[in-house]
Amino acid sequence: MYKILRSIFFLLSPEKAHYTTMRLFKIASKFPFVPPMFEFTAEPKKVDGLTFKNSVGLAAGFDKDGKFLDQLNTLNFGFIEVGTVTPKPQSGNPKPRLFRLSKDRALINRMGFNNEGLKALKGRLEAFRKKERDCTMLIGINIGKNKTTPNENAVDDYVKCYEELYDLADFFIVNVSSPNTPNLRELQNKGELKKILSALISIRENQEKWKPLYLKIAPDLTFTQLDEIIDLQNEIAFEGLVAANTSIDRTLLKHSNKKLVDQIGAGGLSGAPVLEVSNSFVKHIRSKSDMTIIGVGGIEDAASGKSKLDAGADLIEIYTGFIYSGPGLVKELGTI
């Protein structure tokens, strides 16, 4: 059934299809027979003091502004990441900025942290928390910096988002690894990371409730750079890594037309082609550390999900595989 629906939605541009699909599901989910279709029972998992009803999460970027919280809860995700949110609203990069590479079951995006800003997300999260006091879907907030904020002042943007949204999150993810904001990945060097993470942990120490803090990294780092980040976790008590973000490496593509890929241009690659590089990062981190690892990249079925867990991930996230495989993927992964 989903393959038929997907073929129809794929007639639309990727960005339009995304919002059209979720708005239609918003209507469909109100019918009483729909929510039970996505119910399943899984073994809860405790990670960093939190209890996840299942190990399957939705990666950042799918619901940047917290507009589809009810619908994602209906789909029975164990957790989601909203965002990436920035202090000020920003429109992101010019359209088109999201592209399908169906032969590789992949996407390329150069969205550029398009979001309605801190205030808008805060309002929606407050309303959701008030309405769904017993919600078992955990919510992580992925925070970033505005494009206009120079890197030397980046810490201010992360601090603002963290402070303003602290009470509304179950956990936080620091995003310094998107390839679509100029110079953002420069913040992955040890000195800049130490400054940002130290500032956030200092704020956490003065909060009534402790909440886990994770760092999202790029899959294009060298293992030497990755080792520096692993070493940093021994110095600063953040809880772990989200491995990994989208890749700029086009050699990972095996089936797509090169001319088409060249025409698309810049952007981050996600989907099936990044599975192995993501898994290699997870394996490397696990060989060096017992920190928490949220594995993301290339998960589109039970086998790829299991490969991520076998590599050492504590939890897994989906995005592109969710688009290609459909909402049934959550249940498929949640019961492996």
Keywords:
single chain, TIM Barrel, 12 helices, 8-stranded parallel β-barrel, 336 residues
Order of helices and strands: HHEEEHEEEHEHEHEHEHEHEHEHH
- For the record, give the distance between the C-alpha atoms at the N and C termini, rounded to a whole number: 22 Å
Q: Record the strand order, biggest sheet.
A: 3-4-7-8-9-10-12-13
Q: Shape from CA axes?
A: globular
- Averaging pLDDT over every residue, what do you get? 96
Strand content: 15-25%
Q: Percent of residues in helical segments?
A: 25-40%
Q: Quick one: CATH class?
A: Alpha Beta
Largest sheet: 8 strands, parallel, barrel
Compute the CA-based radius of gyration.
Answer: 19 Å
Query: Structural class from helices and strands?
Result: alpha/beta
Q: Helical element count?
A: 12
CATH level-4 homologous superfamily? Aldolase class I
Annotation, overall tally of beta strands: 13
> What is the annotated CATH architecture?
Alpha-Beta Barrel
As for the CATH topology, it is TIM Barrel
User: Which runs of at least 5 residues are low in confidence (pLDDT < 50)?
Assistant: none
Q: Please give the domain count.
A: 1
Structure characterization notes:
The mean pLDDT is 96. Helix 5 runs parallel beside helix 6 (190-204), helix 7 crosses helix 9 and helix 9 runs parallel beside helix 10 (302-311). The chain has 336 residues and is of the alpha/beta class. It has 12 helices and 13 strands. 43% of the residues are buried. The radius of gyration is 19 Å and the shape is globular. Strand 8 (171-175), helix 6 and strand 9 (213-217) form a beta-alpha-beta unit. It has helices at 2-9, 14-28, 69-74, 118-131, 154-165, 190-204, 223-235, 258-264, 275-288, 302-311, 320-325, 328-334; strands at residues 45-47, 50-52, 56-63, 79-85, 98-101, 106-109, 138-143, 171-175, 213-217, 240-243, 268-271, 292-296, 315-318. It has a single domain, classed as Alpha-Beta Barrel (TIM Barrel). The chain has an 8-stranded parallel β-barrel with strand order 3-4-7-8-9-10-12-13, surrounded by 4 helices. Strands 5-6-11 form a 3-stranded antiparallel sheet. The chain has a two-stranded antiparallel ribbon with strand order 1-2.
